[in-house]
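[agent] plan:
  1. take the single chain provided in the ticket
  2. run structure prediction with default settings
  3. attach structure tokens to the ticket
  4. add a short note for the reviewer (M.T.)
[agent] executing step 1
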Amino acid sequence: IEYAPDHINEVMKRFPHSLFLRDENNRLPVHLALQKGLKWSTELVAIMNVNMSHLNEKDPVTGYYPFALAAEEPRSDLRTINYLLRMHPGLIESGIDDSKPTGNKFKRRR
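[agent] step 2 finished; step 3 output follows
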């Protein structure tokens, strides 16, 4: 995914087990795909659906959950973000760390 994003479909066909493998930074293919900005497609859906538990796992490099990786780009794909949040809605609250200042003048109400 990282080195040949245009050939992802062929890689998935020939090496389906690779969707479960982590790279040298302990990142999953779903983390790489989302950070590279892979848009909603059959390939991205296949990567996300191959192991749903990966969708609630933080990226070890950025510390972001997959929904946040998908939202990181200026031209984020809203279908992907929506899908990820619908699969694991509890990650919204768990991904917020109130102890760190955000620079936002508005405070969250509880």
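[agent] step 4 note for reviewer: The radius of gyration is 15 Å.
[agent] ticket updated
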